[in-house]
């Protein structure tokens, strides 16, 4: 699944806020997705409330526009059955709306703008992210001139998880755009939405004429800060919810808008979208569970001991963990607060002698409580995180904060409390000196004050890499869950081929629902790992397409069908994409598919030195497409958690060269090159890969080398392969892969399904 890379804890509270301590605000959901992320892959947004789903349905006018676009794309065919797809920007030109001026009178925009004038708000613009930490759209500005967009900083490329609870889907509620990545900006007169290439087509369909669509990464498209500096007069006030922005993102935004003397306003006591969202869903409250040690591999005490060693080595006394998947991994716990991701809204503070989990008490069962007590972890209310951070600062604690992940509200509270603490110490020191005390005995030195506050270490969380490098039990669980998943997919594809052969009517939604039924029958299945992307024909070109029952297409035999799906199992997480044709593919479709397959094979067979970052390998997956002037608008690989988030970091394989994280033995990444022709068809082939050490005859410079081991075993449709384009080595790869699929999956299926599996794993001629 195509993703954007990613982080974890959300965000703004459902409970009343407390202005003095801000203790009533929930904070962040870091998973990582980019998100995001950092980013890269084709995934979908979380399930929407019915009110949002209704708003995303295609209107008759939009359906006519889509038909016209498809006809235009068809008319663009030239000799040789080759389609030259028109850019989506051209297809949108000339259509009514899209001015972003609010002329159509969007009621939500009008209500939001009315709040701007309130004395306790007093702003000229408001930024609404995807209810996740937004680092992503601000950071790309440094690279837009070279037409390269990145999803994070050079050290940590993750954004908040693209999967969030319904009550935090503020941007989707306001804009109607349900893609997992995007940032909305509203001024008193204009409204604009930024999203990346995975969602251009989807945003065109879902945004009303009151919104301007900003296609991030395209030449000439301004960043959010550039746009604000352009459309607002100098000296304006731009508001954000600091619980939804990482500290780094807020600082970068503050610096960028200062060029026009704009002021960044942290609106801490309430979220403006919440103020106008009258039927906002309730926050999740389901219980958490213990992740069994046979799947976790390492007990909680050992994980906390390793983390405390990191604290001591870096001279710290405590660390704040705000990424939800990091909390879940450290404590060997899982939850269900977030659709598709087994995490729960929480914070964790680990000190040298003890640890504290901040979570709603009603989510902690007696069994979970005993599990935590045995590891020396105490509980405090979720809302107490800020007051605890203040308390630590008042005690002079040196706190480790990953400012690329921890939200701006926490860092702001900590710094303010540190300043108060040092002011008290400075006052005490002056009194000691005035009373004749020796300068060697005073509480604080003058140079300490001049050098600023030393009580914070602002550094990437050490948990990210520890979680990304899987242990033996996690690897075994991933392998086992992938085999059961392969059995479910074999049953599904066998069923679907027969349904199509019998000329039965199948919608994209019905297909996704049926796949869920097959997965549900597998041992240890919990949920899907993301909303299934079931796209026929032109819908397959929408990289993060999510079909709905009132606007989906029928799956036929005249075009390609793309299915990107995954499962959450008790012992692992899966993510797989296959593209098939139930009729006769055109020569052009076969060539495109084969070139995508060649890229997939090239990456799968890569061997590379240790300490190689993922972006170095990305070219391998694109080279065959580049040879004929083709490409795709997403990264090639994202990290995957073990029974955790389907998008995790910090590793990725992407053309976005900002992520310098080296691939390491034990990491898991996706291999998912693709090709998409707007309004025509989409192609993607995705397997998950385990990074492993390889034994070579040489070791240049004493450096070890790494390669990949396949985790996914599902047939690749042979009828779509143009063997004349493949080398003997590539043909051997396909045949060897299908031999492995047959050997590993056949024992798990029977009858017609086994026959289907053998037919679809025959050797290429």
TrEMBL record:
The entry's cellular-component GO terms read:
cytoplasm
Keyword Transport recorded: no
Asked whether the UniProt record includes Manganese among its keywords, one would answer yes
The record places domain Creatinase N-terminal at 123-260
Give me the ranges of the annotated region Disordered.
69-105
Keywords for the protein's UniProt record, in alphabetical order: Hydrolase, Manganese, Metal-binding
Residue ranges annotated for the Peptidase M24 C-terminal domain, each copy included: 704-763
Molecular-function annotations in GO: metal ion binding; metalloaminopeptidase activity
Q: Where in this chain does the record put each Peptidase M24 domain?
A: 476-693
Swiss-Prot/TrEMBL cofactor(s): Mn(2+)
**Pfam families, per the entry:** Creatinase_N, Creatinase_N_2, Peptidase_M24, Peptidase_M24_C
Highest taxon above the source species? Eukaryota
Question: According to its UniProt record, which protein family does this protein belong to?
Answer: Belongs to the peptidase M24B family.
Protein name, entry field: Xaa-Pro aminopeptidase P
Q: Which organism is it from?
A: Ananas comosus var. bracteatus (red pineapple)
